[in-house]
Protein backbone atom coordinates (compact mmCIF):
# COMPACT_ATOMS: atom_id res chain seq x y z
CA UNK A 1 0.00 0.00 0.00
CA UNK A 2 1.16 3.49 -0.79
CA UNK A 3 0.57 5.45 2.40
CA UNK A 4 2.15 8.64 1.14
CA UNK A 5 -0.03 11.69 1.42
CA UNK A 6 -1.42 12.96 -1.88
CA UNK A 7 0.22 16.30 -1.11
CA UNK A 8 3.73 15.04 -0.38
CA UNK A 9 5.31 16.20 -3.64
CA UNK A 10 3.45 19.51 -3.46
CA UNK A 11 4.76 20.24 -0.02
CA UNK A 12 8.30 19.41 -1.12
CA UNK A 13 7.97 22.08 -3.79
CA UNK A 14 6.64 24.57 -1.25
CA UNK A 15 9.38 24.37 1.34
CA UNK A 16 10.85 27.86 1.16
CA UNK A 17 14.38 28.76 2.15
CA UNK A 18 13.42 31.81 4.15
CA UNK A 19 15.58 33.55 6.70
CA UNK A 20 14.22 35.40 9.71
CA UNK A 21 10.90 34.96 11.48
CA UNK A 22 8.97 37.07 13.96
CA UNK A 23 9.29 36.15 17.69
CA UNK A 24 5.87 34.47 17.49
CA UNK A 25 6.95 32.45 14.45
CA UNK A 26 10.23 31.56 16.15
CA UNK A 27 8.28 30.01 19.06
CA UNK A 28 6.23 27.98 16.59
CA UNK A 29 9.46 26.99 14.87
CA UNK A 30 10.92 25.75 18.16
CA UNK A 31 7.74 23.78 18.80
CA UNK A 32 7.96 22.22 15.33
CA UNK A 33 11.60 21.28 15.84
CA UNK A 34 10.65 19.64 19.15
CA UNK A 35 7.87 17.70 17.42
CA UNK A 36 10.29 16.58 14.73
CA UNK A 37 12.84 15.41 17.28
CA UNK A 38 10.19 13.50 19.27
CA UNK A 39 8.88 11.87 16.11
CA UNK A 40 12.34 10.77 14.97
CA UNK A 41 13.01 9.37 18.43
CA UNK A 42 9.76 7.38 18.34
CA UNK A 43 10.81 5.78 15.05
CA UNK A 44 13.86 4.25 16.70
CA UNK A 45 11.60 2.12 18.90
CA UNK A 46 9.76 0.48 15.94
CA UNK A 47 11.16 -2.94 15.07
CA UNK A 48 9.00 -3.90 12.06
CA UNK A 49 10.69 -2.34 8.96
CA UNK A 50 7.47 -2.04 6.87
CA UNK A 51 5.60 -0.37 9.73
CA UNK A 52 8.56 1.92 10.39
CA UNK A 53 8.72 2.99 6.72
CA UNK A 54 4.98 3.67 6.59
CA UNK A 55 4.99 5.76 9.77
CA UNK A 56 8.13 7.61 8.69
CA UNK A 57 6.63 8.53 5.35
CA UNK A 58 3.20 9.65 6.58
CA UNK A 59 4.48 11.38 9.70
CA UNK A 60 7.29 13.05 7.78
CA UNK A 61 4.80 14.38 5.23
CA UNK A 62 2.60 15.87 7.95
CA UNK A 63 5.59 17.57 9.55
CA UNK A 64 6.73 18.84 6.16
CA UNK A 65 3.28 20.30 5.54
CA UNK A 66 3.36 22.07 8.88
CA UNK A 67 6.83 23.43 8.12
CA UNK A 68 5.70 24.70 4.69
CA UNK A 69 2.65 26.40 6.21
CA UNK A 70 4.85 28.10 8.80
CA UNK A 71 7.28 29.32 6.13
CA UNK A 72 4.51 30.66 3.91
CA UNK A 73 2.73 32.41 6.78
CA UNK A 74 5.93 34.14 7.92
CA UNK A 75 7.23 35.14 4.46
CA UNK A 76 7.50 38.95 4.09
CA UNK A 77 5.02 40.43 1.59
CA UNK A 78 7.30 41.75 -1.14
CA UNK A 79 5.82 42.46 -4.57
CA UNK A 80 7.05 40.32 -7.43
CA UNK A 81 5.30 40.07 -10.77
CA UNK A 82 4.72 37.14 -13.11
CA UNK A 83 3.09 36.39 -16.45
CA UNK A 84 -0.48 35.28 -17.08
CA UNK A 85 -0.36 31.48 -16.76
CA UNK A 86 -3.25 31.19 -19.24
CA UNK A 87 -1.94 33.66 -21.82
CA UNK A 88 -0.94 30.92 -24.24
CA UNK A 89 -4.41 29.31 -24.10
CA UNK A 90 -6.08 32.61 -25.02
CA UNK A 91 -4.51 32.46 -28.49
CA UNK A 92 -6.34 29.25 -29.44
CA UNK A 93 -10.04 28.73 -30.07
CA UNK A 94 -10.26 25.52 -28.03
CA UNK A 95 -8.11 23.58 -25.56
CA UNK A 96 -7.73 20.91 -28.25
CA UNK A 97 -6.16 23.48 -30.62
CA UNK A 98 -3.53 24.14 -27.96
CA UNK A 99 -2.86 20.40 -27.67
CA UNK A 100 -2.46 20.04 -31.44
CA UNK A 101 0.01 22.94 -31.47
CA UNK A 102 1.97 21.42 -28.59
CA UNK A 103 2.35 18.09 -30.40
CA UNK A 104 2.82 19.31 -33.98
CA UNK A 105 5.30 22.01 -32.95
CA UNK A 106 7.73 19.55 -31.37
CA UNK A 107 11.01 18.89 -33.17
CA UNK A 108 14.49 17.54 -32.34
CA UNK A 109 17.85 19.32 -32.60
CA UNK A 110 21.24 17.66 -33.08
CA UNK A 111 23.70 19.31 -30.71
CA UNK A 112 27.48 19.07 -30.67
CA UNK A 113 29.07 17.56 -27.60
CA UNK A 114 32.50 18.19 -26.11
CA UNK A 115 33.28 14.49 -26.55
CA UNK A 116 33.75 12.48 -29.76
CA UNK A 117 31.84 9.66 -28.09
CA UNK A 118 28.66 11.63 -27.44
CA UNK A 119 25.93 13.23 -29.56
CA UNK A 120 23.22 15.19 -27.75
CA UNK A 121 19.61 15.43 -28.91
CA UNK A 122 17.41 18.29 -27.73
CA UNK A 123 13.62 18.00 -28.10
CA UNK A 124 12.34 21.55 -28.67
CA UNK A 125 8.80 22.32 -27.51
CA UNK A 126 6.74 25.19 -28.96
CA UNK A 127 5.77 26.40 -25.46
CA UNK A 128 8.00 27.19 -22.51
CA UNK A 129 6.20 26.23 -19.32
CA UNK A 130 7.73 26.80 -15.91
CA UNK A 131 6.46 25.61 -12.55
CA UNK A 132 3.97 26.30 -11.13
CA UNK A 133 2.48 27.22 -14.52
CA UNK A 134 3.49 23.96 -16.18
CA UNK A 135 1.58 22.61 -19.16
CA UNK A 136 -1.90 22.77 -17.71
CA UNK A 137 -3.28 19.55 -19.24
CA UNK A 138 -2.37 16.00 -18.15
CA UNK A 139 0.28 14.74 -20.55
CA UNK A 140 3.01 12.20 -21.00
CA UNK A 141 5.93 11.89 -23.40
CA UNK A 142 7.87 8.67 -23.78
CA UNK A 143 10.95 8.22 -25.97
CA UNK A 144 11.40 4.74 -27.46
CA UNK A 145 14.35 4.67 -29.88
CA UNK A 146 16.65 6.50 -32.25
CA UNK A 147 17.31 5.48 -35.88
CA UNK A 148 20.89 5.99 -37.08
CA UNK A 149 22.21 6.77 -40.55
CA UNK A 150 23.21 3.10 -41.01
CA UNK A 151 19.51 2.20 -40.43
CA UNK A 152 20.28 0.68 -37.05
CA UNK A 153 17.63 1.29 -34.38
CA UNK A 154 18.90 1.92 -30.84
CA UNK A 155 16.28 1.42 -28.09
CA UNK A 156 15.89 4.00 -25.33
CA UNK A 157 17.12 3.03 -21.88
CA UNK A 158 16.40 5.03 -18.70
CA UNK A 159 20.07 5.37 -17.78
CA UNK A 160 23.49 4.90 -19.37
CA UNK A 161 25.14 1.53 -18.70
CA UNK A 162 28.87 1.34 -18.10
CA UNK A 163 28.91 -2.36 -19.05
CA UNK A 164 26.95 -2.07 -22.32
CA UNK A 165 29.55 -2.26 -25.15
CA UNK A 166 27.22 -0.95 -27.88
CA UNK A 167 25.69 2.38 -28.90
CA UNK A 168 23.24 3.65 -26.28
CA UNK A 169 20.36 6.14 -26.14
CA UNK A 170 19.68 7.51 -22.66
CA UNK A 171 18.72 10.74 -20.84
CA UNK A 172 21.44 13.35 -20.87
CA UNK A 173 23.38 13.57 -17.61
CA UNK A 174 24.95 16.91 -18.52
CA UNK A 175 21.82 19.01 -19.15
CA UNK A 176 20.26 20.36 -15.98
CA UNK A 177 18.40 23.13 -17.77
CA UNK A 178 16.80 20.82 -20.36
CA UNK A 179 15.73 17.63 -18.54
CA UNK A 180 14.19 16.23 -21.74
CA UNK A 181 17.55 16.14 -23.55
CA UNK A 182 18.91 12.78 -24.68
CA UNK A 183 22.40 11.50 -25.44
CA UNK A 184 23.58 8.99 -28.03
CA UNK A 185 26.70 7.37 -26.53
CA UNK A 186 29.20 5.59 -28.75
CA UNK A 187 31.44 2.83 -27.33
CA UNK A 188 34.84 3.86 -26.07
CA UNK A 189 37.81 1.71 -27.11
CA UNK A 190 41.03 2.24 -25.17
CA UNK A 191 43.88 3.45 -27.40
CA UNK A 192 41.69 3.85 -30.51
CA UNK A 193 41.15 7.35 -31.90
CA UNK A 194 37.53 8.02 -32.83
CA UNK A 195 36.13 10.78 -35.03
CA UNK A 196 32.50 11.50 -34.19
CA UNK A 197 31.79 12.48 -37.81
CA UNK A 198 32.60 8.91 -38.91
CA UNK A 199 30.13 7.44 -36.43
CA UNK A 200 26.60 6.57 -37.61
CA UNK A 201 24.61 9.75 -36.96
CA UNK A 202 21.07 9.95 -35.46
CA UNK A 203 18.50 10.52 -38.21
CA UNK A 204 15.19 10.28 -36.37
CA UNK A 205 13.82 9.95 -32.85
CA UNK A 206 10.86 7.70 -32.08
CA UNK A 207 8.43 7.96 -29.18
CA UNK A 208 4.82 8.47 -28.25
CA UNK A 209 2.88 11.29 -26.64
CA UNK A 210 -0.49 11.48 -24.90
CA UNK A 211 -2.38 14.62 -23.85
CA UNK A 212 -5.81 14.89 -22.20
CA UNK A 213 -7.61 18.15 -23.00
CA UNK A 214 -10.66 19.37 -21.04
CA UNK A 215 -13.58 20.35 -23.19
CA UNK A 216 -13.45 23.90 -21.81
CA UNK A 217 -11.67 26.28 -19.44
CA UNK A 218 -13.80 28.85 -17.60
CA UNK A 219 -12.50 31.80 -15.55
CA UNK A 220 -14.14 33.60 -12.61
CA UNK A 221 -13.08 37.16 -11.71
CA UNK A 222 -13.30 37.58 -7.93
CA UNK A 223 -12.59 40.31 -5.38
CA UNK A 224 -13.13 41.07 -1.69
CA UNK A 225 -16.88 41.49 -2.22
CA UNK A 226 -17.13 37.84 -3.34
CA UNK A 227 -15.86 36.37 -0.05
CA UNK A 228 -18.31 33.76 1.22
CA UNK A 229 -20.22 33.60 -2.06
CA UNK A 230 -20.42 30.74 -4.55
CA UNK A 231 -20.13 31.63 -8.21
CA UNK A 232 -21.55 29.14 -10.72
CA UNK A 233 -21.26 28.50 -14.43
CA UNK A 234 -23.25 25.44 -15.55
CA UNK A 235 -21.65 22.52 -13.69
CA UNK A 236 -18.73 24.52 -12.24
CA UNK A 237 -18.90 26.07 -8.76
CA UNK A 238 -16.26 28.27 -7.12
CA UNK A 239 -16.41 29.67 -3.57
CA UNK A 240 -14.02 32.33 -2.31
CA UNK A 241 -13.62 31.39 1.36
CA UNK A 242 -11.11 34.07 2.33
CA UNK A 243 -9.12 36.87 0.69
CA UNK A 244 -6.37 38.40 2.82
CA UNK A 245 -3.45 40.68 1.98
CA UNK A 246 -1.28 38.09 0.24
CA UNK A 247 -3.27 34.85 0.16
CA UNK A 248 -6.64 33.48 -0.87
CA UNK A 249 -8.60 30.37 0.09
CA UNK A 250 -10.77 28.90 -2.65
CA UNK A 251 -13.07 25.87 -2.96
CA UNK A 252 -14.16 24.35 -6.26
CA UNK A 253 -16.57 21.62 -7.28
CA UNK A 254 -17.80 20.12 -10.53
CA UNK A 255 -21.36 18.80 -10.26
CA UNK A 256 -20.90 16.71 -13.42
CA UNK A 257 -19.01 13.40 -13.20
CA UNK A 258 -15.51 13.20 -14.64
CA UNK A 259 -15.19 11.94 -18.21
CA UNK A 260 -14.38 8.22 -18.49
CA UNK A 261 -11.27 9.14 -20.51
CA UNK A 262 -9.74 10.77 -17.46
CA UNK A 263 -9.97 7.60 -15.38
CA UNK A 264 -7.43 7.59 -12.53
CA UNK A 265 -5.33 10.37 -14.07
CA UNK A 266 -4.19 12.88 -11.40
CA UNK A 267 -5.82 16.22 -12.17
CA UNK A 268 -5.13 19.80 -11.13
CA UNK A 269 -8.32 21.48 -12.40
CA UNK A 270 -7.88 24.79 -10.55
CA UNK A 271 -5.56 27.65 -11.56
CA UNK A 272 -5.64 30.60 -9.13
CA UNK A 273 -3.94 33.85 -10.15
CA UNK A 274 -3.89 37.26 -8.48
CA UNK A 275 -3.42 40.87 -9.57
CA UNK A 276 -2.45 43.89 -7.51
CA UNK A 277 -3.76 47.44 -7.85
CA UNK A 278 -1.61 47.99 -10.99
CA UNK A 279 -3.44 45.18 -12.82
CA UNK A 280 -0.28 43.08 -13.12
CA UNK A 281 -0.17 39.39 -12.21
CA UNK A 282 1.59 38.59 -8.94
CA UNK A 283 3.97 35.63 -8.77
CA UNK A 284 2.97 32.73 -6.54
CA UNK A 285 4.84 32.06 -3.30
CA UNK A 286 3.31 28.60 -2.82
CA UNK A 287 0.09 26.83 -1.91
CA UNK A 288 -1.46 24.44 0.60
CA UNK A 289 -4.06 22.14 -0.93
CA UNK A 290 -5.25 20.19 2.13
CA UNK A 291 -8.26 21.08 4.27
CA UNK A 292 -8.32 20.76 8.04
CA UNK A 293 -10.51 17.65 7.61
CA UNK A 294 -7.96 16.00 5.32
CA UNK A 295 -5.10 16.72 7.71
CA UNK A 296 -7.15 15.40 10.65
CA UNK A 297 -7.90 12.20 8.71
CA UNK A 298 -4.23 11.52 7.97
CA UNK A 299 -3.26 12.30 11.55
CA UNK A 300 -5.85 9.74 12.68
CA UNK A 301 -4.34 7.17 10.31
CA UNK A 302 -0.89 7.96 11.69
CA UNK A 303 -2.15 7.39 15.23
CA UNK A 304 -3.59 4.03 14.18
CA UNK A 305 -0.22 3.06 12.68
CA UNK A 306 1.64 4.07 15.83
CA UNK A 307 -0.54 1.74 17.92
CA UNK A 308 0.50 -1.29 15.84
CA UNK A 309 3.29 -3.65 16.81
CA UNK A 310 3.74 -5.01 13.28
CA UNK A 311 2.53 -4.46 9.71
CA UNK A 312 -0.08 -6.87 8.37
CA UNK A 313 -2.15 -7.39 5.21
CA UNK A 314 -5.35 -6.94 7.22
CA UNK A 315 -4.16 -3.58 8.62
CA UNK A 316 -3.08 -2.46 5.15
CA UNK A 317 -6.57 -3.26 3.79
CA UNK A 318 -8.16 -1.37 6.68
CA UNK A 319 -6.14 1.76 5.85
CA UNK A 320 -6.97 1.39 2.15
CA UNK A 321 -10.69 1.07 2.84
CA UNK A 322 -10.67 4.05 5.20
CA UNK A 323 -8.87 6.20 2.63
CA UNK A 324 -11.22 5.22 -0.22
CA UNK A 325 -14.29 5.92 1.93
CA UNK A 326 -12.89 9.29 3.05
CA UNK A 327 -11.95 10.42 -0.46
CA UNK A 328 -15.45 9.58 -1.75
CA UNK A 329 -16.80 12.13 0.71
CA UNK A 330 -14.49 14.86 -0.60
CA UNK A 331 -16.63 16.41 -3.33
CA UNK A 332 -14.96 19.81 -3.24
CA UNK A 333 -11.35 20.79 -4.01
CA UNK A 334 -9.62 23.25 -1.68
CA UNK A 335 -6.54 25.41 -2.11
CA UNK A 336 -4.87 28.19 -0.15
CA UNK A 337 -2.59 30.14 -2.49
CA UNK A 338 0.04 32.64 -1.32
CA UNK A 339 1.26 35.44 -3.56
CA UNK A 340 4.26 37.78 -3.58
CA UNK A 341 2.45 41.06 -3.13
CA UNK A 342 -0.86 42.58 -1.95
CA UNK A 343 -3.90 41.13 -3.75
CA UNK A 344 -6.50 43.34 -5.39
CA UNK A 345 -8.39 40.81 -7.55
CA UNK A 346 -8.35 37.07 -8.24
CA UNK A 347 -8.58 35.22 -11.53
CA UNK A 348 -9.78 31.67 -10.76
CA UNK A 349 -9.79 29.38 -13.81
CA UNK A 350 -11.32 25.92 -13.82
CA UNK A 351 -10.49 23.10 -16.22
CA UNK A 352 -13.73 21.24 -16.89
CA UNK A 353 -12.97 17.53 -17.31
CA UNK A 354 -16.62 16.45 -17.36
CA UNK A 355 -15.84 15.84 -21.03
CA UNK A 356 -12.35 15.35 -22.39
CA UNK A 357 -10.41 14.55 -25.54
CA UNK A 358 -7.46 12.18 -25.41
CA UNK A 359 -4.84 12.70 -28.11
CA UNK A 360 -2.32 9.93 -28.63
CA UNK A 361 0.33 10.08 -31.31
CA UNK A 362 3.31 7.98 -32.32
CA UNK A 363 6.28 10.24 -32.96
CA UNK A 364 8.93 9.75 -35.64
CA UNK A 365 10.77 13.07 -35.63
CA UNK A 366 13.68 13.85 -37.95
CA UNK A 367 16.81 15.02 -36.15
CA UNK A 368 17.61 18.50 -37.47
CA UNK A 369 20.93 20.34 -37.29
CA UNK A 370 20.94 24.10 -36.78
CA UNK A 371 24.23 25.31 -35.33
CA UNK A 372 24.32 28.84 -33.99
CA UNK A 373 27.20 29.55 -36.38
CA UNK A 374 27.67 27.77 -39.70
CA UNK A 375 29.67 28.18 -42.91
CA UNK A 376 26.86 26.70 -45.03
CA UNK A 377 25.68 29.02 -47.77
CA UNK A 378 22.30 27.35 -48.16
CA UNK A 379 19.39 28.19 -45.86
CA UNK A 380 17.95 25.05 -44.31
CA UNK A 381 14.14 25.00 -43.97
CA UNK A 382 12.49 24.87 -40.55
CA UNK A 383 8.84 25.30 -41.40
CA UNK A 384 6.63 23.84 -38.63
CA UNK A 385 2.86 23.58 -39.18
CA UNK A 386 1.93 25.66 -36.11
CA UNK A 387 1.56 29.27 -35.01
CA UNK A 388 2.93 30.25 -31.58
CA UNK A 389 2.98 33.75 -30.10
CA UNK A 390 5.51 35.40 -27.81
CA UNK A 391 3.54 36.91 -24.92
CA UNK A 392 6.70 38.13 -23.18
CA UNK A 393 7.81 40.28 -26.14
CA UNK A 394 5.74 43.42 -25.29
CA UNK A 395 7.19 43.54 -21.77
CA UNK A 396 10.72 42.80 -23.00
CA UNK A 397 10.57 45.53 -25.66
CA UNK A 398 9.78 48.22 -23.09
CA UNK A 399 13.54 48.23 -22.52
CA UNK A 400 13.94 49.95 -25.90
CA UNK A 401 12.78 53.20 -24.27
CA UNK A 402 14.73 52.80 -21.02
CA UNK A 403 15.72 56.15 -19.46
CA UNK A 404 18.79 57.03 -17.37
CA UNK A 405 16.58 57.40 -14.30
CA UNK A 406 14.98 53.97 -14.81
CA UNK A 407 18.39 52.37 -15.31
CA UNK A 408 19.79 53.90 -12.13
CA UNK A 409 16.73 52.93 -10.07
CA UNK A 410 17.24 49.34 -11.23
CA UNK A 411 20.70 49.07 -9.64
CA UNK A 412 21.18 46.92 -6.54
CA UNK A 413 24.46 46.74 -4.62
CA UNK A 414 25.73 43.63 -2.85
CA UNK A 415 28.91 42.98 -0.90
CA UNK A 416 31.02 39.90 -0.18
CA UNK A 417 33.75 39.92 2.48
CA UNK A 418 34.06 36.17 3.07
CA UNK A 419 37.55 36.32 1.55
CA UNK A 420 39.33 39.47 2.86
CA UNK A 421 41.93 39.18 0.11
CA UNK A 422 39.19 39.39 -2.54
CA UNK A 423 36.37 41.40 -1.00
CA UNK A 424 33.80 42.44 -3.59
CA UNK A 425 31.23 45.12 -4.27
CA UNK A 426 28.82 44.24 -7.09
CA UNK A 427 26.50 46.59 -8.97
CA UNK A 428 23.69 44.65 -10.61
CA UNK A 429 20.53 45.55 -12.45
CA UNK A 430 17.68 43.59 -13.98
CA UNK A 431 18.58 42.69 -17.56
CA UNK A 432 16.43 44.44 -20.16
CA UNK A 433 16.17 44.61 -23.94
CA UNK A 434 18.45 47.66 -23.75
CA UNK A 435 21.29 45.47 -22.44
CA UNK A 436 20.81 43.19 -25.43
CA UNK A 437 21.56 46.10 -27.76
CA UNK A 438 24.64 47.52 -26.03
CA UNK A 439 27.10 45.76 -28.33
CA UNK A 440 30.76 45.48 -27.37
CA UNK A 441 32.24 48.94 -28.07
CA UNK A 442 32.47 50.24 -24.50
CA UNK A 443 34.68 53.16 -23.42
CA UNK A 444 34.13 53.49 -19.66
CA UNK A 445 37.07 55.86 -19.21
CA UNK A 446 38.49 56.60 -15.77
CA UNK A 447 36.70 54.93 -12.84
CA UNK A 448 37.13 57.04 -9.70
CA UNK A 449 36.93 54.99 -6.47
CA UNK A 450 38.20 56.04 -3.04
CA UNK A 451 38.16 54.29 0.32
CA UNK A 452 37.66 56.10 3.62
CA UNK A 453 37.97 55.35 7.32
CA UNK A 454 35.19 56.08 9.78
CA UNK A 455 35.34 58.74 12.47
CA UNK A 456 34.34 58.32 16.10
CA UNK A 457 30.74 59.10 15.14
CA UNK A 458 30.76 56.27 12.56
CA UNK A 459 30.54 58.66 9.62
CA UNK A 460 32.98 58.96 6.72
CA UNK A 461 36.35 60.36 7.78
CA UNK A 462 39.78 60.44 6.09
CA UNK A 463 40.67 58.95 2.67
CA UNK A 464 43.06 55.99 2.67
CA UNK A 465 46.21 56.12 0.55
CA UNK A 466 46.46 52.83 -1.34
CA UNK A 467 48.87 51.07 -3.70
CA UNK A 468 47.37 50.38 -7.17
CA UNK A 469 47.23 46.64 -6.56
CA UNK A 470 44.98 47.06 -3.49
CA UNK A 471 41.80 47.21 -5.57
CA UNK A 472 40.56 46.58 -9.09
CA UNK A 473 37.50 47.91 -10.91
CA UNK A 474 35.79 45.93 -13.68
CA UNK A 475 33.18 48.32 -15.14
CA UNK A 476 31.87 45.84 -17.71
CA UNK A 477 30.95 43.37 -14.98
CA UNK A 478 30.08 46.09 -12.50
CA UNK A 479 32.46 44.87 -9.77
CA UNK A 480 35.04 46.35 -7.42
CA UNK A 481 37.46 43.81 -5.91
CA UNK A 482 39.77 44.87 -3.08
CA UNK A 483 42.40 43.16 -0.90
CA UNK A 484 41.93 44.23 2.71
CA UNK A 485 45.34 42.82 3.64
CA UNK A 486 46.95 45.61 1.59
CA UNK A 487 45.02 48.40 3.37
CA UNK A 488 47.03 50.33 5.99
CA UNK A 489 43.77 51.12 7.78
CA UNK A 490 40.41 49.39 7.93
CA UNK A 491 38.10 50.93 5.29
CA UNK A 492 34.59 51.86 6.34
CA UNK A 493 33.28 53.57 3.20
CA UNK A 494 33.77 53.32 -0.57
CA UNK A 495 32.94 56.38 -2.64
CA UNK A 496 33.03 56.75 -6.38
CA UNK A 497 31.22 56.39 -9.65
CA UNK A 498 30.41 53.19 -11.53
CA UNK A 499 29.64 53.56 -15.24
CA UNK A 500 26.40 52.11 -16.58
CA UNK A 501 25.67 51.88 -20.29
CA UNK A 502 22.52 52.97 -22.08
CA UNK A 503 21.70 52.48 -25.75
CA UNK A 504 19.62 54.91 -27.78
CA UNK A 505 17.26 52.69 -29.77
CA UNK A 506 15.33 53.63 -32.88
CA UNK A 507 12.23 51.58 -33.69
CA UNK A 508 10.57 51.14 -37.09
CA UNK A 509 7.56 49.16 -38.31
CA UNK A 510 7.77 47.48 -41.73
CA UNK A 511 5.31 45.73 -43.99
CA UNK A 512 6.57 42.25 -44.87
CA UNK A 513 5.81 42.90 -48.56
CA UNK A 514 7.87 46.11 -48.68
CA UNK A 515 11.13 45.32 -46.96
CA UNK A 516 14.30 47.36 -47.55
CA UNK A 517 17.30 45.85 -49.30
CA UNK A 518 19.15 43.54 -46.94
CA UNK A 519 15.99 42.03 -45.41
CA UNK A 520 14.12 39.18 -47.08
CA UNK A 521 11.34 36.87 -45.91
CA UNK A 522 11.33 33.28 -47.12
CA UNK A 523 8.20 31.78 -45.62
CA UNK A 524 8.72 31.76 -41.86
CA UNK A 525 12.43 32.67 -42.17
CA UNK A 526 13.78 36.22 -42.08
CA UNK A 527 17.15 36.56 -43.86
CA UNK A 528 19.28 39.49 -42.70
CA UNK A 529 22.32 40.82 -44.59
CA UNK A 530 24.86 41.64 -41.90
CA UNK A 531 26.63 44.20 -44.12
CA UNK A 532 23.54 46.39 -44.10
CA UNK A 533 22.22 45.33 -40.69
CA UNK A 534 25.18 44.49 -38.38
CA UNK A 535 24.22 41.87 -35.81
CA UNK A 536 25.40 43.83 -32.77
CA UNK A 537 23.32 46.90 -33.74
CA UNK A 538 20.00 45.46 -34.93
CA UNK A 539 17.18 43.29 -33.54
CA UNK A 540 14.08 42.04 -35.38
CA UNK A 541 10.64 41.04 -34.14
CA UNK A 542 7.83 39.65 -36.26
CA UNK A 543 4.03 39.79 -36.12
CA UNK A 544 1.26 38.20 -38.13
CA UNK A 545 -2.10 39.77 -38.99
CA UNK A 546 -3.42 39.10 -35.48
CA UNK A 547 -1.12 41.85 -34.20
CA UNK A 548 0.66 39.44 -31.84
CA UNK A 549 4.41 38.86 -31.84
CA UNK A 550 5.44 35.51 -33.30
CA UNK A 551 7.74 33.41 -31.16
CA UNK A 552 11.19 32.92 -32.64
CA UNK A 553 12.22 29.27 -32.91
CA UNK A 554 15.96 29.86 -33.29
CA UNK A 555 18.49 31.86 -35.30
CA UNK A 556 21.56 30.90 -37.31
CA UNK A 557 24.57 33.03 -38.29
CA UNK A 558 26.08 32.10 -41.68
CA UNK A 559 29.81 32.94 -41.73
CA UNK A 560 32.45 33.01 -44.47
CA UNK A 561 34.75 30.68 -42.55
CA UNK A 562 36.96 30.42 -39.49
CA UNK A 563 38.50 33.87 -39.98
CA UNK A 564 35.92 35.36 -42.30
CA UNK A 565 33.13 37.82 -41.53
CA UNK A 566 29.54 36.96 -40.65
CA UNK A 567 27.64 37.15 -43.94
CA UNK A 568 23.97 36.84 -43.09
CA UNK A 569 21.67 35.64 -40.36
CA UNK A 570 18.42 33.67 -40.50
CA UNK A 571 15.63 34.01 -37.92
CA UNK A 572 12.99 31.25 -37.92
CA UNK A 573 9.50 31.88 -36.50
CA UNK A 574 6.51 29.76 -35.46
CA UNK A 575 4.29 31.25 -38.16
CA UNK A 576 4.65 33.43 -41.26
CA UNK A 577 5.37 37.12 -40.52
CA UNK A 578 3.28 39.80 -42.21
CA UNK A 579 4.84 42.71 -40.30
CA UNK A 580 8.31 43.36 -38.89
CA UNK A 581 9.62 45.65 -36.20
CA UNK A 582 13.27 46.70 -36.36
CA UNK A 583 15.26 48.05 -33.41
CA UNK A 584 18.57 49.79 -34.13
CA UNK A 585 21.13 51.06 -31.64
CA UNK A 586 21.93 54.56 -32.90
CA UNK A 587 24.02 55.74 -29.94
CA UNK A 588 25.64 54.47 -26.76
CA UNK A 589 25.86 56.65 -23.66
CA UNK A 590 27.70 56.18 -20.38
CA UNK A 591 25.60 56.90 -17.30
CA UNK A 592 27.57 57.66 -14.14
CA UNK A 593 26.16 55.94 -11.07
CA UNK A 594 27.54 57.79 -8.05
CA UNK A 595 27.75 55.89 -4.79
CA UNK A 596 28.77 56.08 -1.16
CA UNK A 597 28.72 52.60 0.37
CA UNK A 598 29.18 51.67 4.02
CA UNK A 599 31.40 48.61 3.82
CA UNK A 600 30.66 45.32 5.54
CA UNK A 601 33.26 44.30 8.10
CA UNK A 602 35.55 41.36 7.45
CA UNK A 603 37.83 39.23 9.61
CA UNK A 604 41.27 40.38 8.52
CA UNK A 605 44.27 38.06 8.42
CA UNK A 606 46.56 40.86 9.62
CA UNK A 607 46.15 41.09 13.43
CA UNK A 608 47.46 44.66 13.39
CA UNK A 609 44.33 45.76 11.64
Largest sheet, strands/sense/barrel = 9 strands, mixed
Number of strands: 28
Class computed from helices, strands and strand pairing: alpha+beta
Shape category: globular
The percentage of residues in β strands lies in 35-45%
Rg of Cα set: 30 Å
Question: Structurally, how many domains make up the residues?
Answer: 4
Instruction: Give the quaternary arrangement of the chains.
Output: single chain
End-to-end distance:
65 Å
Poorly predicted sequence stretches spanning 5 or more consecutive residues = 1-23
Helix content: 10-25%
Word description of this protein:
This is Lipoprotein. It comes from Pseudomonas fungipugnans. The protein is α+β, with helices and mostly antiparallel strands and 609 residues long. It has four domains: 8-76 and 290-329, no CATH class; 77-283 and 340-369, no CATH class; 370-401 and 505-587, no CATH class; 405-503 and 591-598, no CATH class. It contains nine helices and 28 strands. It has helices spanning 8-14, 23-44, 49-74, 95-104, 292-307, 313-329, 393-396, 404-409, 433-436; strands spanning 107-111, 118-124, 139-148, 153-155, 168-171, 182-185, 202-222, 230-233, 236-243, 247-254, 270-275, 284-288, 333-339, 345-368, 373-374, 412-416, 423-428, 449-454, 460-463, 471-474, 479-482, 493-511, 519-522, 525-529, 538-543, 552-559, 566-573, 579-598. The strands form five sheets. Strands 1, 2, 3, 4, 5, 6, 7, 11 and 14 form a nine-stranded mixed beta sheet that branches. It has a five-stranded antiparallel beta sheet with strand order 8-9-10-13-12. The chain has a five-stranded mixed beta sheet with strand order 15-26-27-24-23, with no helix packed on it. The longest helix is centred in the first third of the chain and has 26 residues, at 49-74. The protein is globular, with a radius of gyration of 30 Å. The N and C termini lie far apart (65 Å). 23% of the residues are buried.
